[in-house]
Write a structure and sequence with these properties.
Layout lengths: L8 H18 L4 H4 L12 E7 L3 H17 L3 E7 L4 H10 L6 E2 L4 H9 L6 H4 L2 H10 L2 H6 L1 E2 L2 E2 L14
Parallel strand pairs: 1-2, 1-3
Antiparallel strand pairs: 4-5
Helix pairs in contact: 1-3
Amino acid sequence: MLGPPRPTRRQLLVVAAMAPTTTLLGCLAPNSQRGGSEAPIKEGAQVPAQVWTGWTEKAAKKVDRVISVFNDSQDKVNARHVVVPGDMSQKLLAAINAGKPPEAAIVFGAGLAYQLAARGALLAFDDVGDPNELEALHTWMTPAMLDMAQYDGQDFYLPIWSQCWGDIR
């Protein structure tokens, strides 16, 4: 067999379900790096984290379940799903400019993620992630998807899916 073994369908579904959690762990720069003015978190207290998405109805309920599992799995972060209706990209950029962005967001399109990374509004997974988990991610993620997740050679986000358009003749 050439290269690492391909992930099973079940492994891909588990990772897809965990993608919002992965994004939660290292997406937007913390308030201290964003110019926020929140009071410091007390020792041992859970860090509150808003997770913005544009998903509604059934998709929002699935994100809620993933966040609930994440919250139940650890005691350091208390994530809360916030549905942002309409053009979330504009609302997210406005929140960043105002110094009050969410701790994490699930956005549509690599272009916005690149824009946020270039502005220093994202934390690189390389800086906050477990090196063993990042190595595992690099092992099974297809090269094209891995390239799409990087800006200036660092991992800034995790693509959940990719769509291709073509002319069928």
